[in-house]
Design goal:
Blueprint (H helix, E strand, L loop, with lengths): L6 E3 L6 E3 L22 H11 L2 E4 L10 E4 L2 H8 L8 H12 L11 H9 L3 H16 L7 H20 L4 E2 H6 L1 H11 L6 H11 L1 H5 L9 H11 L2 H14 L5 H7 L11 H15 L1 H16 L3 H7 L3 H12 L6 E5 L4 E3 L2 E3 L4 E4 L1 H4 L35 H18 E6 L19 E6 L6
Parallel strand pairs: 4-9
Antiparallel strand pairs: 1-2, 3-4, 5-11, 6-9, 7-8, 10-11
Length: about 450
């Protein structure tokens, strides 16, 4: 990641870009959630590992008077995500409240279809696992390799005009032309939405993740005005999904929504309602776009910055798998989330953390923990157990779409290696990232060297 205040080459043509964010020099400088913090997160992680691997956020807990704690060590984050009972998800507290009262809480304005479906389909750890096994794994789990042809088709469609432009000596925006549209196209095909609806689906997807981009503090809080804007943008999504659900229930096709309308959810001994299908779709959209986009965009930066890496994966395609894992470890798409509560008094790295405290799990920092990973800042194509990183979390609540994302990335990089001989930064990059908690670069201007004899 670019270090604020440093000078960085914009492509070898003599231009230099100065980044004007303040680089933290000591612990007192660090606020991971301040505007612009994205540009120096990795400098902050080095300081936190050394001086405050458990950082207290006074008064920022879930309840009044409680605190939150940022965990940055691999062993701590792994311990938390793998123990649902001792560290229950914050969302489970809301679900329990809804079940107890029998109604959605009026004081929380952004209750959505996904939360409603969690209440009815997966309110407990046991049902969470059943939901994954029966409803999502058949489409995005280990068997998702059956989508390889569909994904390759979208990759090739996006690559062809990029290669032609590169042959003409034109610069490409790798984010706008490849990294962003690929998961959008794949998710639309998977769910059964027409490709021509992608612009509308993109708007709804952006609205769904608004709190993670524009939210304040570690809790990603939106202002009332932002919340109203979110729901203004989301207007129509529920009706759109409901219409598609009714169509596919009457005339099933080979897509995930059709599957959900026909499946018997054995854990509950019944099928799904239209609203429950909508909730599952909502979760697929919110989780299926940004992670893959950001991962591919960051990997493209790594091949520009790390000499020899791209040549190595072009020559040995088996190394692409490790390259992808190393990319997600080094540049985690979602840097961290405040998703767990301590059910009991705990101690992390010698720091006492009272029961009821909220935990912000900083996956990105854990993924470069020098106590876990040798040469943590290096891309090591021979790293053993490279997939043990926490970019997708671990345990029962690990990302259900991780297999699909890995498949998209694998196919993408194999096809890129076929078609592109070299990547280089083009002039004009600012390397600026969006706000919020995800490592999302706005644009990535590249000069691509087409392969002389592309193989497909």
């Amino acid at each position: 990641m670019i270090v604020p205040g440093e000078m960085r080459s914009d492509g070898g043509t003599g231009g230099r870009i100065k980044v004007l964010a303040r680089r933290p020099e000591c612990l007192a400088d660090i606020d991971l959630f301040a505007p612009g913090a994205q540009e120096h997160w990795y400098d902050a992680y080095t300081i936190l590992h050394r001086e405050a691997p458990v950082q207290r956020l006074p008064g920022e807990g879930l309840s009044e008077g409680s605190d939150a704690f940022v965990l940055t060590k691999y062993e701590d984050v792994k311990r938390v995500v793998r123990d649902w009972e001792r560290f229950p998800p914050t969302l489970s507290l809301l679900v329990a409240q809804i079940i107890e009262t029998g109604e959605m809480p009026a004081h929380i304005p952004d209750i959505d279809a996904m939360v409603a479906s969690i209440v009815s389909l997966r309110p407990t750890p046991e049902l969470w696992r059943a939901h994954r096994k029966e409803l999502t794994d058949p489409w995005v789990g280990p068997g998702c390799t059956r989508h390889a042809g569909m994904i390759a088709g979208h990759v090739d469609d996006l690559l062809a005009p990029m290669v032609e432009r590169a042959r003409a000596g034109e610069t490409v925006d790798f984010v706008a032309e490849f990294a962003r549209p690929l998961p959008q196209r794949v998710m639309a095909s998977l769910l059964g939405f027409p490709q021509e609806d992608i612009p509308q689906l993109e708007e709804w997807g952006n609205a769904q993740v608004m709190s993670y981009v524009h939210g304040r503090t570690h809790r990603n809080l939106l202002t009332p005005e932002q919340t109203r804007e979110k729901f203004r943008l989301l207007a129509g999504m529920k009706d759109y999904v409901a219409d598609k659900t009714r169509e596919k229930r009457a005339n099933p096709q080979d897509d995930m929504i059709s599957f959900l309308t026909q499946v018997e959810y054995r854990a509950l001994g019944r099928g799904l309602t239209d609203d429950e299908v909508g909730g599952v779709v909502y979760a697929m959209v919110i989780g299926g776009l940004e992670t893959t986009q950001y991962a591919i965009a960051e990997q493209a930066q790594l091949v520009c910055e790390r000499a020899g890496v791209y040549d190595a994966i072009r020559k040995d395609r088996e190394a692409i798998r490790t390259f992808i894992e190393e990319g997600m470890r080094l540049r985690s798409p979602t840097q961290g989330l405040s998703t767990r509560i301590c059910a009991h008094d705990e101690v992390f790295q010698g720091v006492e953390v009272p029961a009821g405290s909220m935990l912000h799990l900083r996956w990105a920092a854990a993924n470069i923990d020098p106590d876990e990973f040798e040469d943590p800042h290096e891309v090591k194509l021979d790293r053993r157990a490279a997939s043990r990183h926490l970019a997708f979390s671990q345990g029962a609540r690990s990302c259900p779409g991780s297999n699909l994302s890995r498949l998209e990335q694998t196919i993408a990089w194999n096809r890129l290696c076929d078609s592109i001989a070299a990547f280089a930064y083009a002039p004009g990059n600012t390397f600026a990232h969006q706000g919020g908690i995800m490592l999302g670069i706005h644009e990535l201007r590249l000069d691509l060297t087409p392969a002389s004899d592309p193989a497909h």
